[in-house]
Amino acid sequence: MKRVLKLTLYGSLELYLNVYLLDKYGLESWVYWLSLVLSLLLMYWLDKLFWSDKTWCF
Q1: What is the pTM of this model?
Q2: What is the DSSP letter of 16?
């Protein structure tokens, strides 16, 4: 349950950041696409680092 809550929190922050950057820079901007790719990589890395191994679950 904690994993779901933390992924939801990180997902909400990621969504807010992406919507903000989309509104500020537009869909054609490289800033938006770079932030989208980096946020997806960060979510993948956090999931692998903290939540895939049960000993790291907090």
Answers
A1: 0.53
A2: H
